[in-house]
């Protein structure tokens, strides 16, 4: 059985997508709440409720994280997640009811499928409802349904990507998992071999050099904000909000080991970190392991993808 983020006790995942419009959302639920942090490295992010994760702010736990396509329009999916959790009685107690805390981040997938169809509240409700009821599917699912990579030379040379997940468990019981929707302007390489798995196609079975291509083409070929890789790393470690934010920061190394270039002006790369608080663990161990499993999840996202929207996948395009 493949490893996934739901190997972390207290983490559930639900996904919903429109395979024709090529968009979708992924909900990571934390029944009972989890400490959370976030780190945004890309320069074109679309996020919701991330300020709450600053250690100086009031709320200590989140109840779900929503990763979604649809660019800024897709933030509506998080409203649906909130509605579902409210019906379940799960949220921050405000005396007259509960307010579910659902940080969210979006990626731009409007270039594939239909630009007029985006994740909405109904899709968010459906993804939240499915959480905990099925294994985590990979590839063209959830927030990775319309994901693509290798766009530094334009969409005509890009390749299909998707969603991936991975986990690792240490002998002391510490379990760390990652889930990622890979939608980068850059190419994806296997960190173990250096092999390019998906990138800008050269039309001859190989790949264009991204430095040369970016140097030759002006920024107009890549409209600002039309990319973004979104990830969640989770562990059963006992962390403070400050340390959860540190883990999110360290986890970005997993993106840097696999995506070239990453954190560009055209990406809104965002990593959330969740901690369910069951095992004592050093923050450096959790952060280092989070980067490792996130790098593995990125590779799996590309390898699991199927061609769609006129773009070939890794399995369909051999160098």
What is the domain total for the residues?
1
Total of helices: 5
- Helix fraction? 10-25%
By CATH, the topology is: L-amino peptidase D-ALA esterase/amidase
Run of helices and strands = EEEEHEEEHEEEEEEHEHEEH
Q: How many β-strand stretches?
A: 16
Q: What shape does the CA trace take? A: globular
CATH class: Alpha Beta
Structural class: alpha+beta
User: In CATH terms, what is the architecture?
Assistant: 4-Layer Sandwich
Regions with little confidence, pLDDT below 50 for 5+ residues: none
Estimate the mean pLDDT confidence. Answer: 94
CATH superfamily grouping: L-amino peptidase D-ALA esterase/amidase
Radius of gyration, in Å, reads 18 Å
Layout of helices and strands, plus pairs?
Elements: E1 12-18, E2 23-40, E3 47-48, E4 62-68, H1 76-87, E5 92-93, E6 98-99, E7 104-106, H2 121-130, E8 148-149, E9 159-160, E10 163-169, E11 175-181, E12 187-189, E13 196-198, H3 210-216, E14 230-237, H4 241-256, E15 259-260, E16 270-279, H5 283-304
Explain what you see.
This protein is of the alpha+beta class and 319 residues long. The protein has one domain: 4-Layer Sandwich (L-amino peptidase D-ALA esterase/amidase). 21% of the residues lie in helices and 27% in strands. The protein contains five helices and 16 strands. The strands form four sheets. Strands 1, 2, 3, 4, 7, 10, 11, 14 and 16 form a nine-stranded mixed beta sheet that branches. β5 (92-93) and β6 form a beta hairpin. α1 (76-87) packs across α2. The longest helix has 22 residues, at 283-304. The protein is globular and about 60 Å long. It starts with 11 loop residues before the first strand and ends in a 15-residue tail after the last helix. 61% of the residues are buried. The model has no long low-confidence stretch (mean pLDDT 94).
């Amino acid at each position: 059985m493949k490893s996934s983020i739901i190997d972390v006790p207290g983490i559930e995942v639900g996904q919903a997508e429109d395979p024709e419009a090529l968009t979708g959302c992924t909900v990571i639920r934390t029944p009972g709440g989890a400490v959370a942090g976030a780190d945004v490295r890309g320069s074109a992010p679309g996020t919701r409720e991330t300020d709450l994760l600053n250690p100086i702010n009031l709320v200590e736990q989140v109840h779900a994280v929503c990763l979604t396509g649809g660019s800024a329009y897709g933030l509506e999916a998080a409203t649906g997640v909130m509605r579902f959790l409210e019906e379940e009685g799960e949220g921050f107690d405000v005396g007259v009811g509960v307010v579910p805390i659902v940080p969210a981040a979006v990626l731009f997938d409007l270039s594939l499928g239909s630009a007029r169809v985006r994740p909405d509240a109904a899709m968010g409700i459906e993804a939240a409802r499915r959480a905990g009821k099925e294994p985590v599917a990979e590839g063209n699912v959830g927030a990775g349904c319309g994901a693509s990579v290798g766009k530094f030379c334009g969409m005509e040379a890009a390749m299909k990507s998707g969603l991936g997940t991975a986990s690792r468990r240490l002998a002391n019981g510490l379990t760390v998992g990652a889930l990622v929707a890979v939608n980068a302007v850059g190419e994806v390489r296997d960190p173990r071999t250096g092999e390019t798995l998906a990138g800008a196609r050269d039309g001859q079975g190989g790949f264009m050099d991204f430095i040369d291509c970016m140097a030759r083409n002006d920024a107009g070929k890549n409209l600002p904000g039309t990319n973004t890789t979104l990830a969640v790393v989770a562990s059963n470690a006992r962390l403070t909000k400050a340390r959860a934010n540190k883990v999110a920061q360290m986890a970005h190394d997993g993106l840097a080991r696999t995506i070239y270039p990453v954190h560009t002006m055209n990406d809104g790369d965002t990593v959330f970190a969740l901690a369910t608080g069951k095992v004592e663990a050093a923050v450096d161990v959790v952060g280092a392991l989070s980067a490792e499993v996130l790098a593995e999840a990125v590779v799996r996202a590309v390898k699991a993808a199927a061609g769609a929207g006129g773009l070939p996948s890794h399995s369909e395009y051999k160098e």
